[in-house]
Amino acid sequence: MNAVAAEWIKLRTLRSTWWALGVGVLTALALTALGASTVISRWEPGQTGEQAAMGIVVAVYVGVVLAQLPLGMLGTMSISGEYTSGMIHTTFVATPSRSRVLLAKACVLGGIAIAASLLIAIPGYLYGHVVASGFDPTLPPAGAWAVIGGGTLMIAMTTMLGLSLGAIFRNGVVAISVLVVLMVLVPFAGRMLPGGEVVNRILPGYPALQLTEQMPDIMPDEAAFAVLGAWSVIPLLIAVLANKRVS
After folding, report:
1. Residues 157/204, Cβ–Cβ less than 8 Å
2. What is the number of alpha carbons within 13 Å of residue 73 lying toward its C-beta?
3. Which residue, 1, 6, 164, is CA-closest to 94?
4. By C-alpha distance, which of 163, 156, 157 is closest to 7?
5. Which of 167, 150, 152, 153 is nearest to 105 (CA)?
6. DSSP letters of 127-192?
7. Which of 45, 78, 87, 189 stands 20 to 30 A from 163 (CA)?
8. What angle do CA 163, 169, 171 make, to 5 degrees?
9. Is 38 helix (H, G, I), strand (E, B) or coil?
């Protein structure tokens, strides 16, 4: 618990934390409002209240997913900056268990990622509800929970992946570059190349977009959640092993 408290103090006193959160949340909110207004304006008059409710949730979680890269960069900077400045040595003197330090960072960053998703989703949903009021939207249907869970897990996973890459490469530029390649370039190339559907099944991007109903289904929702969960945990375990020494 002391390690978690120490990491929270370090993160909240860094200017980069608030810049990354501010850019991610405000950009996502603006795009959510724009996207929701555009999508809802194109709905057919026969849209039912349940369909309207589902449509609002889907529109909102487009914005949540768009915040993933700033949060992933925050995860990267939270540890790569310590390696660059040499502060990591002080951290490990205070807490000799290096795996404990990394897991404490993961706990803090996971909480920040979930909070950020709520800061985007709740105002976005309320705004969408107002814009779609003419369709008398109901409460979100049962199918909306896959969208909410997928979007939230996506933003948390990207934050964890950023932390893991920062710990593995110990260089912010390299780690952020790898993060962008994994989250943006490889999935895009996979959609263009023969056999890309197979590649996209094991990458985090497509499963998240499937769960938030931005892409056609290529796997069961349970498998999509499993892929996102694996990308949250496995790189972190690799980072724990890579973090056994300080260079």
Report:
1. yes
2. 18
3. 6
4. 163
5. 167
6. HHHHHTGGG---SPPTTHHHHHHHHHHHHHHHHHHHHHHHHHH--HHHHHHHHHIIIIIHHHHHHH
7. 189
8. 85
9. helix
List the one residue out of 211, 236, 230 whose CA is nearest residue 161.
236
Q: How far is CA 156 from CA 50, 96, 113, in A?
A: 28, 27, 5
CB atoms within 10 A of CB 103: 17
pLDDT 10s per residue in the chain (247 long)? Answer: 688 888 888 888 888 888 888 888 898 898 888 888 888 888 888 888 898 989 899 888 888 888 888 899 999 998 988 888 888 878 877 777 888 888 999 999 999 999 999 999 999 999 998 999 888 898 888 889 999 999 999 999 999 999 999 999 988 899 999 999 888 887 777 777 776 677 778 888 888 888 988 888 888 999 999 999 999 999 999 998 887 755 5
- Distance, CA of 79 to CA of 90 (rounded, Å): 13
* Tokens (6 digits) for 155: 């933003």
Radius of gyration of the chain (CA): 19
Tokens coding 163: 């932390």
- Mapped onto helix, strand or coil, the DSSP state of residue 44 is coil
| Residue 165 zone, left/alpha/beta (φ > 0; ψ -120 to 50; rest) | alpha
What are the structure tokens assigned to 81, written together?
Answer: 């900056």
Expressed in percent and rounded to 5, the helix, strand and coil fractions of the chain are 80, 0, 20
